[in-house]
Specification:
The protein is α+β, with helices and mostly antiparallel strands and 104 residues long. Helix content is 39%, strand content 18%. The structure holds zinc ion.
Length: 104
């Protein structure tokens, strides 16, 4: 019995590890690259947020660095991203050219 539990545990541990490097929406393995870090108060439109969660949650085309910037703040950072999410995000930007940010 203990050996069975151990094997099941090992199976799910390995599956979990492998799945963490796969886009949960598109089931594509993540790629890794450096992207720009954006600083300041960045507010996305509700339309963009809804589209991102539904169609491109792992596009990771940039990183939000927050509002505090110092001389040694990084200008870019490595991220994991999904190619299909990137493609979906690019298509969304083409169809909604000025809808990404919220201006109030
Ligand atoms: Zn994806």
């Amino acid at each position: 019995m203990w050996k069975f539990v151990s094997n099941v545990w090992r199976f799910f541990s390995r599956l979990s590890s492998e799945m963490s490097h796969v886009c949960p929406v598109h089931c594509e393995p993540f790629k890794r690259e450096s992207v720009p870090v954006r600083y300041g108060l960045i507010r996305y439109s509700d339309e963009y947020i809804a589209a991102k969660y539904a169609g491109f949650p792992w596009s990771a085309s940039s990183v939000n660095g927050g509002c505090v910037v110092s001389p040694d703040s990084p200008t870019d950072r490595y991220v994991e991203y999904c190619e299909q999410c990137r493609a979906n995000e690019a298509m969304w930007h083409e169809e909604h050219p000025s809808s990404t940010f919220k201006f109030e």
